[in-house]
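Dear support,

I submitted the protein below through the web form. The confirmation email said the job was done, but the results page showed an empty box. After a refresh the structure appeared. I'm attaching both so you can tell me whether what I see now is the final result or a partial one.
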Amino acid sequence: MSAPAYQRILLKLSGEALMGSQGYGIDSVVATQIAREIGEIQAMGVQVAIVIGGGNIFRGVAASARGMDRATADYMGMLATVINALALQDALEQQGVVTRVVTAIEMRAVAEPFIRRRAIRHLEKGRVVVFGAGTGNPFFSTDTAAALRAMEIKAEVIMKATKVDGIYDSDPMVNPNALRFEQITYLKVLEQGLKVMDATAISLCMDNRLPIVVFNLLTEGNIKRAISGEPVGSVVTV
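What the results page shows now:
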């Protein structure tokens, strides 16, 4: 395996990634597999920060659509991300990977509050940092939280782990003739309304020239391949 192409990354995981084939909650087998792969790249000397969603437990946008106050629904979604962050921390530490959960909403009994310099120091000391509770503000997705935290910790890339092997011009689950992009610009993602990350996150990455690598998490070893700079998935860049 070649030397890592990146020294500090932000890995964006959806809550659904932890769900596996279940309809709800956390699949411990999947969490262990993800933790093992993260441990492998950390052993390569890569500093790893993670932003995780909460869609496997609670999705604020969906609850809002059913009539719940949007801000209340979003705060509930943020708490779901903290549950996932703690589950991932446990899975990582069972693999011998020292991990810190850092949250945008203070809950000192279970996690550290987000302090930028402290989070960077954890990374420098070889700890994996899992960011929970999104940005701490309603109306912002965990995609935006990933872009924001990546900028704050000076990550070199956002690695967006999904259930498909890159970015397509249409849903490959529905359209077997969907075209996959190996490389695409931020502007085209926005113009074509491609469901990579939400528009706020894409715009933030575009303004700061932060590349996004979109790859399939379900293929074992893909995280390591992507870190090594192998052509895995799709790249969003200038």
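Response: this is the final, complete result; the empty box was a page-load delay. Residues 8-237 form a domain with the Carbamate kinase fold (CATH 3.40.1160.10).
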